Amino acid sequence: GAVVSQHPSWVICKSGTSVKIECRSLDFQATTMFWYRQFPKQSLMLMATSNEGSKATYEQGVEKDKFLINHASLTLSTLTVTSAHPEDSSFYICSALDDANSPLHFGNGTRLTVT
Amino acid sequence: ELKVEQNPLFLSMQEGKNYTIYCNYSTTSDRLYWYRQDPGKSLESLFVLLSNGAVKQEGRLMASLDTKARLSTLHITAAVHDLSATYFCAVEETSGSRLTFGEGTQLTVNP
Fold first, then answer.
1. Closest residue of B to A39, CA-based?
2. pLDDT tens digits, one per residue of B2-24
3. CA nearest B6 in A: which residue?
4. B42 and A109 in contact by Cβ < 8 A?
């Protein structure tokens, strides 16, 4: 089955530093990937839609200059949290679309803790 | 704006009992998904419902979709402890577009 790999699984960083999270589709090409954020005991909230070869589409309230998304190939999208602050601590999950009639395939998530 | 509401948000039940989780959504859609999430983990796909009247079953779980009522149900039959998890429904407005998730239902099945 289709697999989405997310790396790293967890990361602890100091406030003010930047963190990059990778999302790879391992056995299919994904023109579209989605980045979600989930705070404890809450649902998933879409942050942005990442399209290969073009700029990401950000949801309302998500700072595009803070959460940099790059989708340079059909199998890789990256999310960089710039100048991270403790309030950015969350569970970040990517997903990728294989074909329009299949469910999204989700990565294993990245738990970010900013100290 | 699409809104997706789940009910109940918390559910504690005994093993062997039956229960239903409801998922209502606010705009027209015929694509609905159910996911399971264990603590600290990502999402596991359970069901894909792509048309009105769709019904799918896997083990003790059965999901249905009524697009006219904008309602999906996840029915649990003879619950077992292993079903303890958080269950999310998610609605896709159009094919290949983003998902809007419900708040999640935290299910605890007690021995």
1. B40
2. 899 999 999 999 999 999 999 99
3. A43
4. yes
- Name the residue among B33, B41, B101 with its Cβ closest to that of A43: B101
Which of A43, A50, A58, A90 would you mutate first to test chain B, the one with the most B CBs within 10 A? A43
The residues, any chain, with a CB within 8 Å of residue A60's CB and separated by 6 or more, are: none
| Binary contact (B100, A109; C-beta < 8 A) | no
B33-54 b/e (C-beta count within 10 Å ≥ 16 → b): bbbbbeeeebbebbbbbeeeeb
pLDDT in tens, A35-64: 999 999 999 999 999 988 888 999 999 999
Q: Kindly report the CA angle at B27 between B22 and B31, in degrees rounded to 5?
A: 65
Cα–Cα distance, A16 to B61 (Å, whole number):
45
Among all chains, which residue has been given the structure tokens 């093993």? B15
Sheet of A19-25: strand order equals A4-7, A19-25, A76-81, A67-73
